[in-house]
Amino acid sequence: MAHVPLIDPFARAINYLRVSVTDRCDFRCTYCMTEHMSFLPKAELLTLEELDRLCAAFIRMGVEKLRITGGEPLVRKGIMTFFEAMGRQLQEGGLKELTLTTNGSQLRRYATELAAVGVKRINVSLDTLDDAKFAKVTRWGRLAQVRDGIDAAREAGLRVKINTVALKGVNEDELFPLVEWCAREGHDLTFIEVMPMGEMGEADRLDQYWSLKDLRAELETRFTLSDLPDRTGGPARYVRVADTGQRIGFITPLTHNFCESCNRVRLTCTGELYMCLGQEDMADLRAPLRANTADTALEMAIRAAIARKPKGHDFDYSRQTIKGQMSRHMSHTGG
């Protein structure tokens, strides 16, 4: 049965869904989580079968691209059954692209399986190439494990894009080594501006804020950069580095430069649908999902939510509270 596609009030076709499959992570990055996080009760989480059913409904309604996020998606028990289900959606042709954003820790274990179900590219969050700094920033992470995971992804034929949060006093001195490492390894690279708001644990974000305008100016002291017209429908703006041939992206969450073409919505692991990253309006899809085995009410709830999608975001830092992972939420939007 043909479905009417999802069109928002501003005539944008919604064809990109970001899905958080877990709130859990095996790292505790200082700007993202407190060290002793309390996670959601299991009953509140969507089961993998419910996630499959929800995503299938979105795909029937015109979603062509899925990005799987977390927490760390690959720490969820049994997660490959969900990826296999989405792989079947790729084979059937409704879904055109299946990607994930990961911290890289589990890639040695899963890269081959991910490639087998049809994942072609992934985003790996990596802020430093220094072992000691990596341990400090992630608290629980080991850089060698992540580097090995990235190697495993490449061996499996996956394209890797590195997402790096620009952190003053943390990775400022690694700007050129990061760019040069990505150029050597053949990885695309995107820098993300940290959201300058409040405190997260002991890390003060205002002290960590490093403007990407300043970062780009620093890059231009060594490299020749030219702006690219590339648009992935997301917030990144891209440049070509003439000296290395690589593409570098910049994501500044405070800017509105991607709202006009925003084609995406975000689903949390508890079934809340956020129509805009920068606004708190959301729709509960878990209730209609669990109330009925038929999808009629669920599809009505999805359409009603898309009808409320705003034209653009409005970050108001005077009232914004950190709910964990705001910087990574933005980084996960990287195409």
Describe the structure.
This protein is α/β, with parallel strands linked by helices and 335 residues long. It has eleven helices and 14 strands. It starts with 15 loop residues before the first strand and ends with a helix. Strand 7 and strand 8 form a beta hairpin. Helix 1 runs parallel beside helix 2, helix 2 runs parallel beside helix 3 and helix 3 (107-117) packs parallel to helix 5 (143-155). Residues 198-203 and 316-335 have low confidence and may be disordered. The protein has a twelve-stranded mixed β-sheet with strand order 9-10-11-6-5-4-3-2-1-12-13-14. Strands 7-8 form a two-stranded antiparallel ribbon.
> What Rg is obtained from the alpha carbons, in whole angstroms?
19 Å
Number of strands: 14
Order of helices and strands: EHEHEHEHHEHEEEHHEEEEEEHHH
Q: In percent, how helical is the residue content?
A: 25-40%
Biggest sheet: strand arrangement: 9-10-11-6-5-4-3-2-1-12-13-14
Distance between the termini: 30 Å
> Are there runs of 5+ residues with pLDDT below 50, and where?
198-203, 316-335
Mass-distribution shape: globular
- Secondary-structure class: alpha/beta
Main sheet specs: 12 strands, mixed
Number of helices: 11
Chain-averaged pLDDT: 87
Range of strand content = 15-25%
